[in-house]
Amino acid sequence: MLDSAIVRKVLDHALAQGADFADLFVERQLRQSLRTVLENVEDVQSGLEFGIGIRLVYGHQVLYGYTNQADATVLCRIVDTLAARDRRDPVSTATAFDFRQPNDRHPVQTPLSVDTALAEKIDFLRRADQAARADSDQIARTIGNVLQREQQVEIFNTEGLHTRDTRHYCRVAVTAVAADGSEQASGSDNIGGLLGWEVHGQRDPAELGREAARQARVNLAAKPCPSGHMPVVIGNGFGGVIFHEACGHLLETTAVAKQASVFHDQMGEMIASPVVSAVDDGTIDNAWGSINIDDEGMPTQRTQLIKDGRLTSFMVDRMGSAKTGFERTGSGRRESYRFAPASRMRNTFIEGGKDAFDDMIASMDRGIFAARMGGGSVQPGTGEFNFAVTEGYYVEGGKILYPVKAATLISTGPQVLKEISMVGADLDLACGMCGSVSGAIPTTVGQPALKVDDILVGGNA
User: Fold this and answer.
1) From CA 328, how far away is CA 32, in angstroms rounded?
2) Final residue belonging to a domain, choices 72, 100, 128
3) How many domains does the chain have?
4) Is the pLDDT of residue 196 over 80?
5) How big is the chain by its Cα radius of gyration, in Å?
6) CA separation (Å) from 431 to 285, 288, 439?
7) CATH number at residue 68
């Protein structure tokens, strides 16, 4: 995408300003989004964006700028602006580029640049809407969304790296709203992956619509949730959002290097119950959070974060490695060329165990089954969290009795890791978007069903 002669001139100029290291991140992104309400197409958007990010490194200091112009003069001017207050005598020399083609683990059948498949996408969402409304007279409205994008990246650096990759993302979501008089409740379901439009083959649209409708009906009939400290079984799949938000970010060197994580000095120590093992894996075929290479050009890998309760690794980017001494893990990620990379999660999940779901429920005298989790808030550094339960049930005497509404789970990431006593075998993954210092990126969360022995449940009963 960018002429190597231009790149060489810019990187040589960066080193001439005394930078220890410099790299260029070139991006071309094609995007399409579609939204329906009931059977009607409400919005269709598409676009193409191109840009270049320039990073200069002086010791542990990072200077970053970007532009939409692939012109050597403009790029060198950005270098001059960035280096103005840190200009030094040159100490490094550039290495000749060695092009490295990454191994593509994620084949795609229907890329956006080949076929927008707009009519097929509209038909898919309409079929989901029809199934949702046929499920019950209580379903008053549905909302459907399809997002597809194709991101081409090319990376150069002063160590001679030259590599490129193409990433294909597609995600489909359906939300149903149930109503009974003035009362309303919603439910949703989605599919997604590092795929083209063939992602629609993962689920039948009618199944998506019926599942969204089922959740909406359950939530409409739910009773107020009791509150207090009690055991909770958290469902598989998106239940892993708690580990992602309350623990995962504390294991990124973005936080560790600043000692802004409670885990920064606990490598090799027991930070969780012995039944807990957790992984951040960028290599899962066609998974939403997977990548062939990270946004610094390093091949991705599987990183064991916690093994049998013991902290075994952090997620490490280039600057995180320089500041902490830990080996890079291929975790440098960014939303686009507008952001410098930082250590970020990919597909992050608690690994499967051996406990049966029925045994978890049977072990509770009084508690909550949080079948599906929603969003929440997390305090950086400590992992203190408050997460909403979007589908929950009251459990008493080892039996699920009735659905509850307005339930929240309140604790800290480090504390909840130690309270996990049972881990199921039903590992599942779910798509999400993660926001942090380098923007919003696709990440996968996941876990099997698991039991937390003691957690504060907020409710309004």
Assistant:
1) 34
2) 100
3) 2
4) yes
5) 24
6) 14, 6, 17
7) 3.30.2290.10
- Which domain does 53 fall in, by range? 4-32+45-100
Convert the pLDDT of each residue in 114-153 to its tens digit.
999 999 999 999 999 999 999 999 999 999 999 999 999 9
Is 105 within 8 Å of 290 (Cβ atoms)? yes
Question: Which whole number is the average pLDDT over 246-272?
Answer: 96
Closest CA to 164 of 71, 290, 300, 27: 27
pLDDT given at position 269: 98
Show contacts of 31-34: CB within 8 Å, 24+ apart.
Answer: 31/112, 31/147, 31/148, 31/149, 31/150, 32/112, 32/116, 32/118, 32/146, 32/147, 32/148, 32/149, 33/145, 33/146, 33/147, 33/148, 34/118, 34/121, 34/122, 34/125, 34/144, 34/145, 34/146, 34/147
Residue 136 lies in a domain: no
| pLDDT tens, residue by residue, 409-427 | 999 999 999 999 999 999 9
For 314-351, letters b (16+ CB in 10 Å) and e give bbbbbbbbbbbebebbbbbbbbbbbbbbbbbbbbbbbb
What span, in angstroms and rounded, lies between the C-alpha atoms of 55 and 65?
Answer: 7
Cα(130)–Cα(120) distance, integer angstroms: 15
Residue 436 lies in a domain: yes
Q: Which of 58, 73, 100 is the last residue of a domain?
A: 100
**Does residue 233 share a domain with residue 91?**
no
Q: Is residue 210 part of a domain?
A: no
- Which amino acid, residue 388? A
Match 């290291």 to its residue by tokens. Answer: 21
Tokens encoding 22: 């410099």
| pLDDT exceeds cutoff 80 at 94 | no
Amino acid at 140: A
- DSSP H or E stretch at residue 182: none
**423 within a domain of the structure (yes/no):** yes
How far apart are alpha carbons 261 and 349 in whole angstroms?
Answer: 19
Q: What is the predicted pLDDT for the residue at 160?
A: 96
